[in-house]
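Entry 14. Ran structure prediction on the chain below.
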Amino acid sequence: MKKHLNKKKKAAFSVFKSFFFFLKANCILGIVLLLFLINYRSWDWDGADYIYIFMLFPQAFLVLLAIIAGFRKTENKFTYQFRNSRNEWIGLVSAITAVLLFSLLFLGAGVAFPSTVVFLAITTNFMVAAFSVIFHPLTIALYEANVFDKCNTKMDYFYKYIAIFTTGINYHTQQLLRSVPLVINKLLAVIFVLLLIWQLFGVNMIFGD
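Output, structure tokens:
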């Protein structure tokens, strides 16, 4: 009887965890929307329609991930920390500068700056997500080594923030998918890759290229 109650307790669905995940995911989408709005003068004539598609299309997948988050039994053992040291500030500013400069490469694709930052983030997360379909434990381990292991030097912090920007979305998605059966894991991992490809095309359509 006691074992049965323990199993029921472990399988309980947490509405708070589910809602909190969904809220965080949409806050990220909200930041993306702000970056797009900065460049509204560069949108194609039907760019506003594609903005709606860009924002609404991922919602079904986010709801699915939120449900998984609600059923997830174990909490992430790692937490993000900001030590407010000189080296961390230099690493953070250097990483932001590098991201902004590298995103300028996408001006050639017709995407306006700073929306190029969104294009860069989706591109890098897409590449790692494709790799994660087969090697998801490796991509998770690499992210955790860069982000959560103790940082000492400016370069350590630089790599930390570069990893957060370029692979953070993939990491948190793979962490959730890790808790589901293997077949479902692989199916959802492939859907995630296809979703990122769709969003890349979506950015191009907003700016009419």
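The longest helix spans residues 115-147. Will compare against last week's run tomorrow.
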